[in-house]
Design a protein that fits this description.
mainly alpha, about 270 residues
Length: about 270
């Protein structure tokens, strides 16, 4: 009865996994190959993983760009305290004819040209404290952005360390479970021989077989953990992408869409013509 219950649970889990597969892939699972860890794409050591994550992880890069943006905001706010100089120039031409349709004398018509040039210097004297308050606010936002960079680095470092230790533990578990399977199989052979000479019962043989099957199940779970942990390491260091995995899919390039619309003043069509 316990075996029947476990079988029903396993079938339910398999159906749920198939539904998740269809949600992500868009098709029903067919003849799937056994998953393999991406060990060739992983760094050689934990320190190398830390260095790669610090230099390439998108979360860290995004917060660093936010620091740059906050620094520009500080400069922009401080610019309101500086003098502003503006220049203007113009030229105009005016034609006058007092008698339209009739030949006018030389003194009744002519062209008048004029030109002007000027400069305006604006010096801020008093703004009621608003400008200085905006400067202080921008500096506090800059400090917050710098703190967020450190927070992102710590979070990424923790994720890398966690994934790496899980990967190492899973690999060691695989090696250990191989020995467990070999020992359980050896014990089963001994119990069978003892049963043949009347020193063991059939129940003892079944229990020994159960131990072998349990060891094989644990081995399969450990192999699954190795695969998941290897992908978790790639995700933690910021390299879990279609390009790094070499997937035969169309890669999204945000610069392509940006370059297609950056010079347009107006328009409703998307870059692909919709």
């Amino acid at each position: 009865a316990t075996a029947v219950a476990q079988l029903a649970s396993a079938r339910a889990t398999a159906l749920a996994s198939a539904a998740t597969y269809h949600q992500i892939i868009g098709d029903e699972p067919g003849k799937l190959k056994a998953a393999a860890p991406v060990g060739k794409l992983l760094p050689g050591s934990l320190d190398s993983a830390f260095a790669i994550a610090a230099a390439e992880h998108p979360a860290i890069l995004a917060t660093e760009h936010l620091v740059d943006a906050a620094a520009f905001s500080v400069k922009s706010a401080e610019g309101a305290l500086l003098p502003q100089l503006s220049a203007s120039a113009g030229i105009s031409s005016q034609y006058r004819n007092t008698s339209p349709g009739v030949f006018a004398s030389a003194g009744s018509e002519g062209t008048t040209n004029s030109a002007n040039i000027g400069a305006t210097l604006t010096v801020p004297i008093y703004s009621g404290g608003r400008t200085s308050a905006l400067v202080r606010q921008s500096k506090e936002s800059l400090s917050q952005a710098r703190i967020e960079v450190d927070v992102s680095r710590d979070q990424v470092r923790q994720a890398v360390a966690s994934a790496w230790t899980q990967y190492t533990a899973a690999r060691e578990s695989v090696d250990a479970n191989r020995q467990v399977i070999a020992a359980a199989q050896l014990a089963l052979n001994g119990v069978i021989e003892e049963r043949n000479v009347g020193q063991r019962t059939t129940l003892d043989v079944l229990n020994a077989q159960n131990a072998v099957i349990t060891a094989k199940i644990n081995q399969a779970s450990s192999e699954r953990d190795v695969v998941v942990a290897s992908y978790a390491i790639l995700s933690a260091i910021g390299r879990l992408s279609a390009g790094q995995l070499g997937l035969a899919v169309t890669k999204y390039n945000p610069e392509e869409h940006y370059n297609a619309v950056k010079d347009k003043w107006i328009g409703l069509r998307t870059p692909d013509g919709r």
